[in-house]
Amino acid sequence: TTPSDLNKISKTSTTPTMPTPDTVGHEFNFNSTYTQLRDLADTNCTYFSRQKTDVCRRFERLLIQLKHTLDLSVPLIRYLTDNFHHFDYSPEIKAHGYRSLVVAHGQACVGTLDILQQVDTKRVGLLFNLMYSSRLFQDLESWTKALIAMQHILTLAVNMVDYSEKKVLYVDANHVPLDIELDYFKMVAFDSEYFFGRTCGFQFQMNSNNSLGETSSSVRNKNL
Length: 224
Known about the structure:
Blueprint (H helix, E strand, L loop, with lengths): L5 H8 L17 H19 L4 H29 L14 H26 L3 H38 L14 H12 L18 H16 L1
Organism: Rotaria socialis
Protein name: Hormone-sensitive lipase N-terminal domain-containing protein
Pfam families: HSL_N (PF06350)
């Protein structure tokens, strides 16, 4: 029931430079981030599964989703990374959308790892339920949903690479096979609100209507 050894994790796996589209898969990668995140998710999922409260059950279910999407996404990222060179503008200019997608997913994993490390250090004790669980759950849920949405994008990207025979970056949408169309519609249909909320730095407002009403009243009273 004790938190994981975060000091050990931070010393052994943090890369000195965050990968960018032109360096990912070549000089730097997010491999250590994936490993940390998957291991910490598994550790905390096991912990919460042994607890009896509703809060812990919610965290357990969410962490199961997180582990599942990581297990599906990382092989897709490995495949894209292995084929980056087919789509680079030139040997000197390493740039295209597949690189940017892998970097975006890696950065989302870094954000998720930060939240999960906070959960790991604060999960034990009464204060977790009273003070920390609500905010941390909302944060972790937002990042997890964003990663699930990106999993659908990665699936489409891998199928497009295969369909193009690793030769063409842009495929003709009018001639793609049905399975790629289906992947596209799965991607579009998935709820994308998490890309534009907590993961972009916006804060949750639990009672926005009341707050707006109170703000309007305050302004009106000041004007009077």
